[in-house]
């Protein structure tokens, strides 16, 4: 029988230490990571996985258009008589509920809502919008700019709410007659309900999980099967931008009636050494047919080639096993194999993300009936309470960032290239870890983190029974927390990049003492049952070392408390629980548990924007009109000292991390700005917390983090810019971010002093510099030797737009993108740091600009606009080729008074 117990090596038990093959490389910025974009359709013996992202019709209503609801909800008023479909949807989670007695029976007879016209073949959707998935109905805007909109700043001021219907035809041929056919939805926001040919098939409320439904009973041969999907997105479902719609891929999977079950393989590696590693495999087989079958399971192991996305050299074969799978039943086999000289998976730059692929074939009567591939990696992890994270025997400091799921101007609609571009920028910054805050990401993103070697904390919930917003997950927690948790772990547990599972972020149950801790423990247990090989965690911004909450998890994730909150004089006027840096207390209370900071900083800033005076401390200051902020402009100064009320600048975070070296590292809040949660200015559309802005442009802070995370990179970065005509003769502090230990600043050739970094100093600052136009130059030193220089000049006025593209040749698959940066430059070619010229884009050739941005959190021009003001000298245009097309493309950018700028691209 399928028994995870067999694999129940103690929580980190596999976490054995061998002498490992480490591949050392020079730490250096890595550009152009380009890995092969995951294949679209996959056809293998017995199994077809067909991408059905094309040919959809879509329509949305802001209010309830059809008299049906999943269940009653605070934002659904006046719908007391609506048909409640929950009893028909709950059974979709049954495969993820352990106790048979807790599984749901579908009510008898046809369901309420089957007669809805939108579900019927006869309904004419000809005037609905023709769209391609992934699709986010809200990202197109417009932004709500009024004072008290239906969707406020927290959720990005975009029209995420309402009911959206998606319709499409499905084709099955007569050769599919005896097959099992499944619909796989990678993510639909939210409360998905699915009808086929007028029958309610099922659904899944939580918008971040992937799910599968069995369409077989409702399909007819031919091309006229009518699929209809209804989504319903609350106005108040999140503290950030959730997006709306089928925002990830959708697949039709056709298999023989006996086949590898959904997410039906589980691979665990153990006894890893230079010489060998043991690979344990479980294959779960499902038989939806009418007769029992004897199945032989054969699995071969190959090296996985991340650049081609294909299997390489064969390295081993598991002993074959036979299992009898009863009619309409399941069974599982397990097998182990030892491989020689394993190539371990580990994070660059010191290790390599080597992967393997297991190809499982099921045979019935000697004939192959299903083939299923599982990518995985071999690595050892030790979550050491004193040394931090040890990967393959090497201590690896977590240099992490938090990332929400949106992709800036593209909204929540997942796009592989946009995600890969983010990872490239993060790698160049020195990031080696990502916390998927606060929800499971697209599977393709985890394929990228596997292939590129990022360490991942996969996280699922921001709330449990107690809410944070009126219509968040708490509404469905009682029915869905178990299916959602199990589905989350089962989908993702073969990913090499995932090192830990987080089942909660800052949940309010931290405040309910033993009751909250007991609930936490029950969630921990569910995760452990699904994957005993990785530690669990839940992030704590309130629970203290002497409270029971921390006892319910394997490793401690602390948000902000490690570096102290509201504890320095600048914050003394704010309300908040004054908390001294708590790393030592947690370490003492939990000597056996590794500690990491799952959120640090919440430093806020706007790229290229500086306000005066500048706070004199490096321990941070909250934002107000005279301290780092301007509420009229809705901007925050980029001296990188100003924070959310509970936050700390990087300098203060690092001081505490360096004083407490047992802490495994940090995940900064956040790597990129994200849509929504624009603390401190809720009139804006996107956050201020990113090290990188929403358009993907580096803020000043980027260089501060890079100086710590990649200290061998020869880099010095001066702030502010030097265009201050109104400040002549005034004190204008200059800060320099660099890994150097000494630096000398010159203003127009005149030294402002050579200074050394003291212990727990992470930036150079000259606070008395008097502004004069001209040139700032810094010369830095390391160990007494000259190291590197940086220079900032007062620029002239804009004379030209300079266009560059991250990639000049892209695929004409309708998904691939080229990101084009516009720099507004003066006659010497320097970017004019205050330029805000209005730029209009146009395209000749097979493609279009699909979105523009500039990284300004307060820019309320809708993302698809072809007209975009530059912000602090930069703007972004995102180009996509037309599906199936090829040819030369010219993108033009035009601004009043400047010559038209052009860049040539190729679609092929
Ligand atoms: C944290 C929270 C994050 C985000 C952040 C803002 O408390 O976990 O989701 O809200 O604050 O700074």
TrEMBL record:
TM ranges: none
InterPro entries recorded: Beta-gal/glucu_dom_sf (IPR036156), Beta-mannosidase-like_N2 (IPR054593), DUF4982 (IPR032311), Galactose-bd-like_sf (IPR008979), GalB-like (IPR048229), GH (IPR017853), GH2_Domain-Containing (IPR051913), Glyco_hydro2_dom5 (IPR040605)
Domain DUF4982 residues, every copy: 729-787
Domain Beta-mannosidase-like galactose-binding residue range list: 165-238
Keywords on record: Glycosidase, Hydrolase
Glycoside hydrolase family domain sequence ranges: 801-903
SUPFAM superfamilies xrefs: (Trans)glycosidases, beta-Galactosidase/glucuronidase domain, Galactose-binding domain-like
Coiled coil: none
Keyword Phosphoprotein: no
Keyword DNA repair: no
Domain of life from the UniProt record: Eukaryota
Gene3D superfamilies (alphabetical): Galactose-binding domain-like, Glycosidases, Immunoglobulins
Family to which this protein belongs: Belongs to the glycosyl hydrolase 2 family.
Protein name according to UniProt: Beta-galactosidase
Protein species of origin: Neonectria punicea
């Amino acid at each position: 029988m399928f028994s995870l117990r067999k694999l129940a090596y103690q929580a980190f038990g596999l976490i054995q230490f061998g002498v490992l093959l480490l591949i050392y490389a020079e730490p250096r910025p890595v550009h152009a990571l380009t890995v092969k974009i995951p294949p679209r359709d996959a056809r293998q013996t017995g199994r077809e996985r067909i991408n059905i992202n094309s040919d959809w019709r879509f329509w949305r209503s802001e209010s309830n258009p059809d008299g049906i609801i999943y269940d009653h909800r605070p934002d659904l008023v006046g719908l007391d008589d609506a048909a409640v479909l929950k009893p028909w949807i709950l059974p979709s989670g049954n495969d993820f509920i352990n106790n048979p007695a807790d599984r749901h029976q579908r009510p008898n007879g046809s369901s309420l809502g089957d007669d809805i016209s939108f579900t019927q073949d006869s309904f004419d959707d000809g005037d609905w919008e023709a769209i391609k998935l992934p699709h986010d109905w809200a990202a197109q805007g417009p932004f709500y700019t009024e004072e008290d909109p239906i969707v406020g700043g927290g959720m990005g001021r975009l029209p995420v709410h309402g009911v959206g219907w998606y319709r499409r035809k499905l084709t099955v041929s007569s050769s599919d007659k005896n097959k099992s056919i499944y619909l796989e939805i990678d993510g639909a926001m939210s409360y998905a309900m699915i009808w086929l040919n007028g029958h309610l098939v099922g659904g899944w409320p939580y918008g971040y999980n992937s799910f599968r439904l069995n369409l077989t009973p409702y399909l007819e041969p031919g091309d006229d099967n009518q699929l209809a999907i209804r989504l319903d997105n609350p106005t108040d479902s999140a503290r950030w931008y959730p997006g709306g719609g089928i925002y990830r891929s959708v697949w039709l999977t056709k298999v023989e009636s006996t086949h590898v079950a959904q997410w039906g393989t589980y691979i665990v590696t153990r006894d890893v050494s230079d010489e060998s590693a043991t690979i344990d495999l479980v294959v779960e087989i499902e038989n939806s047919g009418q007769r029992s079958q004897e199945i032989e399971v054969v699995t071969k192991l190959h090296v996985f080639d991340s650049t081609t996305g294909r299997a390489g050299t064969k390295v081993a074969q598991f002993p074959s096993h036979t299992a009898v799978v009863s009619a309409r039943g399941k069974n599982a086999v397990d097998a182990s194999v030892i491989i020689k000289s394993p190539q371990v998976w580990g994070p660059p730059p010191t290790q390599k993300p080597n992967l393997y692929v297991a190809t499982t074939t099921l045979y019935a009567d000697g004939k192959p009936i299903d083939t299923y591939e599982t990518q995985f990696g071999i690595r050892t992890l030790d979550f050491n309470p004193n040394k931090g994270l040890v990967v393959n025997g090497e201590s690896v400091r977590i240099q992490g960032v938090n990332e929400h799921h949106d992709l800036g101007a593209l909204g929540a609609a997942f796009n592989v290239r946009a995600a890969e571009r983010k990872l490239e920028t993060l790698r160049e910054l020195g990031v080696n870890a990502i916390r998927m805050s606060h929800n499971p990401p697209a599977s393709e993103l985890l394929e990228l983190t596997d292939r590129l070697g990022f360490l991942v904390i996969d996280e699922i919930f921001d709330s449990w029974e107690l809410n944070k917003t009126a219509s968040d997950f708490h509404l469905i927690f009682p029915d869905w927390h178990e299916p959602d948790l199990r589905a989350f772990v089962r989908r993702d547990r073969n990913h090499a990049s995932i090192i830990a599972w987080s089942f909660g972020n800052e949940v309010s149950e931290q405040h309910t003492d033993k009751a909250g801790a007991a609930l936490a423990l029950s969630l921990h247990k569910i995760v452990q049952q699904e994957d005993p090989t990785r530690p669990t965690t839940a992030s704590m911004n309130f629970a203290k070392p002497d409270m029971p909450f921390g006892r319910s998890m394997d490793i401690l994730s602390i948000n902000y408390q490690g570096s102290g909150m509201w504890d320095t004089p600048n914050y003394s006027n704010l309300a908040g629980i004054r908390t001294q840096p708590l790393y030592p207390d947690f370490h003492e209370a939990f000597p056996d548990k590794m500690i990491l900071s799952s959120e640090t900083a919440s430093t806020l800033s706007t790229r290229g924007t500086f306000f005066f005076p500048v706070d004199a401390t490096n321990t941070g200051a909250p934002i107000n009109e005279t301290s780092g902020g301007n509420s009229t402009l809705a901007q925050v100064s980029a001296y990188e000292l100003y924070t959310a009320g509970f936050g700390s600048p990087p300098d203060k975070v690092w001081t505490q991390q360096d004083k407490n070296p047992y802490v495994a590292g940090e995940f900064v809040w956040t790597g990129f700005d994200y849509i929504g949660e624009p603390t401190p200015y809720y009139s804006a559309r996107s956050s201020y917390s990113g090290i990188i802005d929403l358009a993907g442009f580096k803020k000043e802070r980027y260089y501060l983090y890079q100086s710590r995370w990649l200290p061998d990179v020869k880099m010095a970065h001066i702030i502010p810019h030097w265009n201050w005509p109104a400040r002549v003769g005034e004190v204008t502090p200059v800060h320099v971010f660099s890994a150097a230990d000494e630096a000398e600043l010159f203003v127009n050739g005149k030294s402002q002093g050579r200074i050394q970094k003291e212990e727990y100093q992470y930036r150079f600052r000259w606070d008395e510099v008097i502004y004069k136009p001209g040139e700032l130059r810094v010369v830095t030193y390391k160990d007494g030797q000259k190291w590197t220089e940086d220079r900032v000049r007062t620029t002239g006025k804009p004379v030209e737009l300079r266009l560059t593209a991250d990639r000049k040749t892209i695929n004409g698959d309708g998904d691939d993108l080229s990101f084009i940066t516009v720099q507004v430059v003066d006659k010497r070619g320097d970017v004019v740091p205050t330029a805000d010229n209005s730029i209009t884009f146009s395209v000749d050739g097979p493609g279009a600009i699909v979105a523009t941005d500039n990284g300004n959190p307060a820019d309320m021009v809708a993302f698809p606009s072809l007209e975009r003001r530059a912000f602090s000298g930069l703007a972004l245009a995102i180009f996509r080729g037309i599906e199936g097309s090829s040819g030369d493309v010219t993108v033009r950018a035009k601004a009043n008074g400047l010559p038209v700028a052009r860049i040539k691209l190729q679609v092929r």
